[in-house]
Specification:
The complex is a heterotrimer of chains A (293), B (533) and C (361). Chain A is mainly α and 293 residues long. Helix content of chain A is 70%, strand content 0%. Chain A is elongated and about 75 Å long. Chain A starts with a helix and ends in a 6-residue tail after the last helix. By secondary structure, chain B is an alpha+beta fold. Chain B is 31% helix and 19% strand. The longest helix of chain B has 16 residues, at 482-497. Chain B starts with a helix and ends in a 20-residue tail after the last strand. Chain C is mainly α and 361 residues long. Chain C has helices spanning 24-53, 59-62, 65-68, 71-80, 87-99, 113-148, 153-167, 170-184, 208-214, 218-255, 258-266, 270-308, 313-322, 326-354. In chain C, helix 1 runs antiparallel to helix 14 and helix 12 (270-308) packs across helix 13. Classes of the chains: A mainly alpha (293), B alpha+beta (533), C mainly alpha (361). The interface between B and C is large, with 79 and 70 residues.
């Protein structure tokens, strides 16, 4: 088996098909795609928010009416505009968490898997350690110590998330390390780092991408959770978690909690639906958890 | 009452998802619904957002602990209801010399501790000295005060400086009198090295420790969930009104509202005015009382701070729309007239406080070429203790107002611990705080004077405003009838010169079930458990 | 929230078949204990590392404003908690104490942290235990049904349930649940573990549902159960998806085994094959997922406790974090990690007992 065969088998299994594969055309995938496109539009086109999300536009805590379709908050700001604008904080930063965790985790997993021995032992013990550390507590402590801000919340989350990637990458590398194409390249004088970058990185990237896809939903939830606890986004920036946290004081103004909540659910659900489908169809190795294998 | 478990059980059964749990919930109603109601009478449930930390009197400085202490322990003097006038409690009388530096206190002869021991001068000396030498948070209250025993029923207090307000000081929870025998037996000491050698801290959290002379005794103390007091069977005074008092940690005002409306609690302490006002009914009484705290904006005079500029300070002080802030905070709040709240001597009458003129402020900035100056505003985003005011909302309101006059304001919300540390270290530019006074006497506000404790936090030393500093000193030492005029003069001078914008005087609201006969805030906005009936 | 990966490629939770025989339980136990100790040691190191990362000033959260401006009072506070020492020395002292079972003194409560944990852990464990039971009972049943009816409507329905379950923010669900069932309908209590009018039972296990029974107070027991329903259900929902999916795939794998195929060929009815072979072979992954659930819920409880004022480890952890009480955070982390490791360890032992194909290593 040649090297390119292996890579294409792992990373691009559907390459040969020209038309959109059937699993991408299911109703749930189309719906999820539409939801994400809608949110992408909300992020990219600020003009879509009917009002300035930071401006007072009406009386405080007004119920939904024609000026404010989803009512106003305690400062008389338009709830709909804030909910839409919050996507600009929540979604890109959720992606940041996953990207950072995937990057760190992949690097560590590659090194551990490739070199093995004591390097592997140390790195994986560290990964186990962070894994056994209750993630939310570590994140709370880091965010509290660094001071609340979205960046610090992203750092805190990435620190507690990378081990999952490191483990997955390491196990793939362990399987590939002794494979022909890696060995032959090594024998022909390719240095270890070049081997990692040229041979192994492409081989694991497909899996990492799929795993990352699956993680985006959870990452958005996690970030909003830290904001909910007052350890994430800083006012007046709208953010879903902190909007829900603010709504705790206003049970009677149901729109304040319902709007950001539904926004989170729609985005996270869409990412999860897509991630799920991608895993089942592109990476069946990952799909069924290996419980019986 | 019997209907309550039943109602819950119905809910439990209806919740399909909860499978196994629901079954157990249903069966409970049959067995548990009947007999329990009699033992439940006589329990008073109070919902409060906890700040509990310690119930050792010599370390108390949090509101929750002050409330608990008001049931367990007694002080020499006390406030009755919301009147800022100390009345004798364990003391019978107090006489002072003309200079207000020597005070002779006679104790009443019938008071006893829950363990049966009488309250004597030795207990007073022990308690106050232990407070002083334990060097914990409230120890400063004994600064410059010496206490000595004259005879079994008489003690003498001597102060370094005139202290015409000494009765106010003696009402404070940390100055509660505890039984010296019991506390000594538990490892307590009032020696000068008490900070290192006293080991009685844990003793006070033990149930029925008997060290206090109040109408209630401790059943359990949990700083996260709830504190339970039970009737002190040996109480020396009139029998306590309740068999049991439960103070629960309920952080959320809406939850407090739901609890008291559902009959689950009888007193709710943290329902903000805007919600409380609509709750008055046959079943619920709503009380508001003016606050001893003034909400203010501190403008640092530190070199390099954007606020270290008379134009900026002036623009902020006049640029704030106090009226609009008051509306934002809602019911009961008043615009502040200065640093001294209206309940204390020296307060300015309504309308004489800082005046708002955003247009003038905007022009001032524009003329000085300072439009667009960037300023950061620090505040504690988890601070809800001040009459349920949401600092997040208030800070964002201030931000909008100040941006209206041409300043660029960045918010810097952090948990109280971080935010306060930055303020104490003098690192903030603009900071939103309030000062919870220790007593209901205006002397407590002198910390704001130039060179005072709060003055230092904004880098405002005495020589920055010598006139205001002198007026402060004059107010500090004034006695008798001169005090009012002296404090008024200082207060006015503060409004002129101080780098503080005094924003609001919020109202504290209290919602109680009509089954509670009498309950009131004390002047420090806590409640006194021993006065509820 | 969770690491989605933990349900996919995790190679630690699922015991892998050992290459050689020999050694058996004894070596497995020793090895596990060894790695656990290293992990716990590392956790203390990471926690204390925070103090190096950022100069922490816990006195702010624990002293009055007057005292904070008094350098002597601040110094006394720092000395009392050993904060005046260099971080490495604080750490060594902490480790020294740890060996004697002393977790230090909490700066916020002034109580020994071990005592605080003993007070708050049972509340959390009770909640998490019930939530785990609920989510495993429902998730496993739905998972079996989904596998049996693969690609038919029950399977699709199960997929929807599991996707929606993992996509709901727990804190939001808790808020909505509390608004609806407590405030609107008045069916369930909204906070705490017991009605205030009920006398808490004498503390034996710390589990309200057990202690009230031991005390014979049926009214308090009913109240304890009623207080559990809402938070436990909400917690369980957040975890349902993982259990369901895990079970479904394990049972599917089971259905693909030769034994099942043979049984089918023999003409045994589908349902019996499912129950006798497929579910049995899926039992060890189900044990694993139970352990995973427990660990996940132990973390997710922070939000739920916050909204329901549960008074457990979650609230204690939140308060410790915002008060920068490093000693308490370390203590909480160690205890949660111990629980987590112990549960996994037990699960691995059980899994291997159920499924002889799995050897411990």
């Amino acid at each position: 088996m040649t090297r390119t065969d292996v890579i294409s088998m792992i990373a691009m299994p559907e390459r040969s098909r020209r038309r959109v594969p059937a699993w991408l055309r299911t109703p749930s995938m189309i719906a999820a795609g539409a939801v994400l496109v809608a949110w992408l539009a909300a992020i990219l086109i600020p003009a879509l928010t009917p009002q300035d999300p930071l401006a007072t536009v009406g009386p405080a805590l007004a119920p939904p009416d024609s000026t404010a379709l989803l009512g106003t908050d305690a400062l008389g700001r338009d709830n709909l505009s804030r909910t839409l604008a919050a996507a600009r904080t929540s979604i890109p930063n959720g992606l940041m968490i996953v990207a950072a965790a995937a990057l760190i985790g992949t690097a560590i997993g590659l090194i551990a898997g490739f070199f093995g021995g004591w390097i592997d032992e140390i790195l994986m013990r560290v990964a186990d350690l962070v894994f056994a550390f209750p993630g939310i507590i570590l994140a709370m402590a880091i965010a509290a110590a660094l001071g609340p801000s979205v960046q610090n919340a992203v750092i805190a989350a990435a620190i507690s998330w990378w081990p999952a990637y490191a483990r997955a990458v390491r196990s793939i590398v362990l399987a590939l390390r002794e494979s022909e194409f890696v060995l032959s390249n090594r024998l022909s004088g390719v240095g270890p780092f070049r081997s990692i970058i040229v041979d192994l990185l492409p081989a694991v990237s497909g899996s990492v991408l799929v795993l990352a896809m699956l993680d985006i939903g959870s990452a958005i939830l996690f970030l909003a959770g830290l904001s909910f606890l007052g350890l994430g986004a800083v006012p007046p920036t709208p953010e879903w978690g902190s909007m829900i946290s603010g709504a705790v004081q206003y049970f009677d103004q149901w729109w304040l909690a319902v709007a950001p909540g539904l926004a989170i659910v729609s985005v996270v659900l869409a990412f999860n639906v897509i991630g799920d489908a991608i895993r089942d169809n592109l990476e069946p190795r990952l799909s069924e958890n290996g419980a019986g294998s | 009452m019997a209907s309550k478990p039943m109602r819950k059980a119905v809910g439990a059964c209806a919740l399909l998802l909860t499978g196994a749990l629901a079954v157990t919930g249903c069966s409970s109603s049959a067995e548990g619904g009947g007999g329990a109601s009699t033992e439940k009478s006589g329990t008073l449930v109070i919902d409060q957002a906890f700040t509990a930390q310690s119930i050792d009197p010599a370390t108390i400085f949090q509101v929750t602990d002050a409330i608990t202490a008001s049931g367990l322990y007694q002080t020499l003097f006390t406030y009755i209801d919301n009147v800022a006038e100390p009345e004798p409690l364990l003391a019978e009388s107090l006489t002072a010399n003309d200079a207000a530096t020597e005070f002779t206190i006679t104790l009443r002869d019938d008071a006893t501790f829950a363990n049966g021991n009488p309250v004597t001068a030795a207990d007073v000396v022990f308690s106050l000295n232990r407070l002083k030498y334990l060097a914990a948070s409230p120890a400063y209250r004994m600064e410059g005060i010496t206490v000595s025993e004259v005879d079994e029923r008489t003690v003498k207090l001597t102060t370094e400086n005139p202290a015409p307000y000494i009765e106010h000081t003696l009402t404070a929870p940390p100055l509660a009198i505890v039984d010296d025998e019991a506390v000594r037996a538990a490892g307590g000491t009032d020696a000068e090295d008490a900070a290192d050698t006293d080991t009685a801290g844990q003793f006070f959290t033990q149930p029925a420790n008997g060290a206090g002379s109040g109408p209630y005794a401790l059943e359990s103390y949990d700083t996260n969930a709830q504190i339970v007091l039970v009737k002190n069977e040996n109480y020396w005074g009139e029998a306590p009104a309740y068999d049991r008092i439960v103070i629960r940690n309920v952080n959320n005002a809406q939850q407090q509202k739901a609890n008291i409306e559902g009959g689950d609690s009888q007193i709710a302490l943290d329902i903000p005015g805007r919600i409380a006002e609509g709750m008055e009914s046959d079943a619920l009484q709503v009380q508001s009382s003016s606050s001893p705290e003034v909400l203010y904006l501190a403008l640092s005079q530190k070199d390099g701070a954007a606020t270290d500029d008379p134009d900026i300070v002036e623009a902020i002080k006049t640029g704030i729309d106090y009226e609009a802030l008051r509306t934002l905070v809602g019911a009961g709040a008043k615009e502040a007239t200065g640093i001294i709240p209206s309940m204390m001597i020296g307060a300015l009458p309504e309308g004489e406080g800082p005046q708002s003129d955003p247009e003038a402020a905007k022009k001032l900035l524009a003329d000085a070429g300072k439009t667009g100056t960037e300023i950061s505003l620090d505040y504690a985003n988890d601070y809800t203790r001040l009459a349920g005011i949401d600092y997040n909302t208030l800070a964002q309101g201030l931000q909008t107002q100040l941006e209206g006059i041409g300043l660029k304001v960045t918010l810097n919300p952090t948990p109280t611990s971080t935010s306060l540390q930055r303020y104490v270290d003098g690192e903030t530019e603009m900071a939103l705080w309030s000062w919870p006074p220790d007593t209901a006497d205006a002397s407590d506000e002198l910390v704001f004077a130039p060179g005072g404790l709060i003055g230092e936090r904004v880098h405002w030393p005495a020589d920055a405003a010598p006139e205001t500093a002198e007026l402060a000193e004059a107010a500090r030492v004034a006695t008798g009838d001169d005090r009012e005029a002296a404090f008024t003069a200082w207060n006015e001078s503060m409004n002129e010169a101080a780098p503080f914008a005094f924003l609001l005087e919020p109202s504290f609201f209290l919602v109680a079930s009509s089954s509670v006969g009498h309950v009131s805030h004390d002047p420090l906005a806590a409640i006194n458990l021993s006065q509820i009936n | 929230m969770t690491h989605t990966l933990s349900e996919t490629g995790a190679d630690v939770q699922t015991p892998a078949p050992a290459s050689g025989g020999g050694g058996g339980y004894f070596r497995f136990v020793l090895r596990r204990i060894g790695t656990s100790i290293i992990t716990l040691f590392g956790i203390t190191l990471v926690s204390f590392g925070l103090g190096v990362l950022v100069p922490l000033r816990p006195e702010t959260a624990n002293l009055s404003q007057q005292a904070l401006s008094n350098p002597a009072a601040v110094a006394a506070f720092r000395e009392k908690f050993g904060l005046d020492l260099p971080v490495w020395e604080q750490y060594l002292r902490y480790l020294g104490g740890l060996f004697r079972g002393d977790l230090g003194i909490s700066q916020q409560t002034g109580q020994p942290i071990a005592a605080d944990l003993a007070k708050y852990a049972p509340a959390t464990l009770e909640l998490v235990l019930w939530a785990t039971v609920l989510s495993v009972l429902i998730g496993v049943s739905l998972g079996i049904v989904a596998a049996y009816a693969r690609n038919r409507w029950p399977d699709h329905l199960a997929r929807v349930v599991s996707l929606v379950g993992v996509s709901l923010p727990t804190y939001w669900l808790a808020l909505i649940g509390s608004t609806f069932f407590f405030r609107q309908l008045g069916w369930l209590p909204g906070s705490g573990r017991l009605d205030a009018s009920d006398t808490p039972p004498p503390r034996v296990t710390g589990f309200m549902t057990i202690d009230t029974l031991l005390a014979g107070d049926m009214s308090a027991w009913g109240s304890a159960v009623a207080h559990l329903i809402l938070p436990a259900t909400i917690l369980a929902l957040s975890n349902l998806g993982m259990v369901l999916r895990f079970t479904r795939s394990a049972v599917l794998d089971g259905l693909n085994t030769d034994a099942v195929k043979a049984a089918r060929v023999k003409g045994l009815p589908g349902r019996r094959v499912l129950m006798r072979y497929a579910v049995r072979s899926a039992s060890s992954p189900i044990i694993t997922v139970t352990a995973l659930s427990f660990g996940f819920l132990l973390a997710a409880t922070v939000y739920v406790e916050q909204i329901f004022a549960w008074g457990g480890l979650g609230q204690y952890a939140y308060r410790s974090a915002t008060n920068l009480d490093v000693t308490a955070i370390t203590g909480i982390s160690v205890v949660i990690a111990v629980i987590f490791l112990a549960v996994n360890f037990t699960a691995d032992l059980l899994a291997s007992a159920f499924d002889p194909r799995i050897r411990l290593q």
